């Protein structure tokens, strides 16, 4: 059972997530957060020190579960076969993310919305935090993808890998599905996974564009 101190910390993080998802980062003040969490400003300062530290902790908390699973999935894949296929590598990256976003935890959708906001936010501090969190996973997957696709220029591989990440987030959060007619929106976790995987395999295998 969490202590009162731990419960207060989690309550502040939960309130921040909800407000950041609804209002965005710049429009959310510490007063908004303390009111929603039913705590005073001293509690925020005690646990996080500042809005900046609170933001960093919140983003780390929402990224960590998927990041850990994606690292473990890649390690397990490489232990099983030193020369994995493109489909196996992409599957190791996509499946943990889709599983997480389709979990029964009601806060997952809020956290996905927060992250979707964060990756397009022009705030340099937010981009620095996200870069620090995803850099290692990016490097690990890019290295093995580069071995499977040796003729694909590094810059092109990076562009496609980041596009893969964006597609997973925007589809599952529902950013793009709003453009689809209601009667065509039926999907499941398994179908979402297969659609993203099939689409990205074709994308990674496509020849690089000609230089303009």
UniProtKB/TrEMBL annotation:
Taxonomy, superkingdom: Bacteria
Swiss-Prot/TrEMBL keywords: DNA-binding
Family matches, as PROSITE patterns: HTH_TETR_1 (PS01081), HTH_TETR_2 (PS50977)
DNA-binding stretch(es), residue numbering of this chain: 29-48
Domain HTH tetR-type as annotated: residue spans: 6-66
Residues in the signal sequence: none
Database matches in PANTHER family: HTH-TYPE TRANSCRIPTIONAL REGULATOR RUTR, TRANSCRIPTIONAL REGULATORY PROTEIN
Protein name according to UniProt: TetR family transcriptional regulator
